[in-house]
Amino acid sequence: MGISVTRLVKIYGSTTIVHGISFSVADGEFVTLLGPSGCGKTTTLRCIAGLERTNGGVIEIDGKVVSDAEHDIFVASHERNLGMVFQSYAIWPHMSVAANVAFPLEVRGIRDTREAVAWALDVVGLAALAQRQPSELSGGQQQRVALARAIVGRPKVLLFDEPLSNLDARLRDRTRAEISRIQKELSIPAVYVTHDQAEALSMSDRVIVMDLGRIIEEGKPRDLYRRPASRFTADFIGAANFLSLVYREQAWFAPDGSAVRLANPEPGVAGETRVAVLRSEIMEIRARDKAIGQDNHNALHGTVKGLQYMGPHIEYSIDISGVPLNALSNEEFEVGAAVLVTFRPQDIHLLPRSETPQSPSP
Ligand SMILES: Nc1ncnc2c1ncn2[C@@H]1O[C@H](COP(=O)(O)OP(=O)(O)OP(=O)(O)O)[C@@H](O)[C@H]1O
Ligand SMILES: [Mg+2]
What we know:
The protein is α+β, with helices and mostly antiparallel strands. It has helices spanning about 40-50, 95-105, 115-125, 140-150, 170-185, 195-205, 220-225, 230-235, and strands at about 5-10, 15-25, 30-35, 55-60, 65-70, 75, 80-85, 155-160, 190-195, 205-210, 215-220, 240-250, 250-255, 260, 275-280, 285, 300-310, 315-320, 325-330, 340, 350. Helix 5 (about 170-185) links the parallel strand 8 (about 155-160) and strand 9 (about 190-195). The termini are far apart. The site of magnesium ion has 2 residues, from helix 1.
């Protein structure tokens, strides 16, 4: 049945932190709240968890209202049947792994915890370490104990708040895959909070982009990355180049005066300016003198202004008639080289009209 959040409002003191946001998470779905620090992700999660009372709106879990400020409904956190994993693992140092995992069941008065604990440790791959003390575990193993503890009571919902940020990069990748696998195996809805776009894109069925206590947009990772509806999303998820295109003579033109062909033609009004998104990794760079005879669509004339050797590729900063453009390539060019930057029609994306700044364009 999943989770549904309707017009959620949270106020601290006199400051509104969450401004009436609505979203839902289907059964078995993995949804990530993604946004910059302070945008209200943790606050939203804590409201779902019942660790905060709300100031407006309704939260339902598995078809049951658990929070409704107007009707004074508030189901306590421990009665919401949730599994939670936080950034700090919060496992008890003086208890064995098995005792840590059994703890939530014991609090509920369940005596025979052995089978459930064995199951949970097996799911997270820690069965062999049941009798260890937390001090004898690595950071990744400790976080898996926290995960086992979160699932041992067979929760209806999983909530994660930046669970990987204390792990080093390699462990983070492994644990990321592990969390995805476990969530799919249990097939329960999960809400995952992060400000890390790579985590959000790789783990989620759907990503909700937040800023300043509001939802900017939501969508599948691939759609948000390739066809963002807002400048904010384009910029926050992956590095985006923004190009102002002008419409005239039935076509869109780039700042260097070259014509741009779109996969889904979107006619404008004569003289209209629209912002387009071009990802740095989808362009090809060629020396201009070697590109004679090139189709003159989707080929920007530029000059290399700078470069950074990154290992897998070189990151070029290219000037397109005064507009800076970042593009990745394996080819070597020198600063000052005259280049042609090409891209496919399906790789340039026009943002909605509302995303074009209203000030007159130069
Ligand atoms: N208990 C509190 N009292 C007052 N203000 C709070 C409280 N908790 C959070 N805030 C404020 O609410 C805003 C949102 O905080 P929140 O922790 O939800 O952000 P976040 O999106 O999780 O950020 P981060 O990525 O840094 O964890 C912040 O401006 C924060 O200062
Ligand atoms: Mg937070």
